[in-house]
Specification:
178 residues; alpha+beta; 2 domains; 4 helices; 25% helix; extended
Length: 178
């Protein structure tokens, strides 16, 4: 009986090895026709603290300081690499709404905008970063605060500021090398 169990295990393992050895590489041309889910999704619960940010105008020798800057809240993003055709469809379509340089009946301003973007983008793949339209709970909305604003090294503060319920959902950013 033990021999029969061992033979069954050996037969099962050898069939797995046969399937694994039957895998073949896929040519690039064939792979380009395969579609599926790709990309990276990122979610973060931010708790960022910046002790001091000072801007100095060296010409006037004047400065302003922002102290105890905080960013808190939840943010999510997706990262995908898209090809030139997909990027142009996004840019000259509904995502960015730029008028294509060759569009008929466009205003001179729209033609200039499309031509400028076409000249700025040299072609090739693009990294697309998108912040999805998700609802974030009340205690987790994105907020930014500055506890004190002072001038020229003075310890006296103008007060503080806060930006609450910052909504970035629906934002799309494209990055490419040139």
């Amino acid at each position: 009986m033990k021999l029969l169990k061992k033979l069954a295990i050996v037969a099962a393992l050898s069939s797995v090895a046969t399937y694994a050895s039957a895998m073949k590489p896929i040519a690039d041309a064939d792979l380009s026709r395969v579609s599926g889910q790709d990309g990276v999704s990122i979610a973060a619960d931010l708790n960022i603290h910046i002790g001091d940010f000072t801007y100095t105008n060296t010409t006037e020798n004047a400065s302003v300081s922002f102290k105890n800057i905080a960013f808190t809240g939840t943010i999510a993003a997706t990262l995908d690499v898209i090809n030139e055709a997909s990027f142009k469809a996004d840019v000259f379509g509904s995502v960015l709404g730029v008028t294509a340089p060759q569009a008929m009946g466009q205003t001179p301003e729209a033609a200039a905008q499309g031509a400028a973007l076409a000249a700025f983008y040299g072609g090739g793949d693009v990294v697309k970063i998108a912040i999805p339209k998700i609802e974030v709970g009340a205690g987790h909305k994105l907020n930014m605060s500055v506890d004190a604003i002072s001038m020229g090294g003075s310890s006296a503060s103008y007060g503080k500021m806060a930006m609450n319920d910052i909504r970035l959902q629906g934002t799309t950013v494209y990055i490419w090398a040139h």
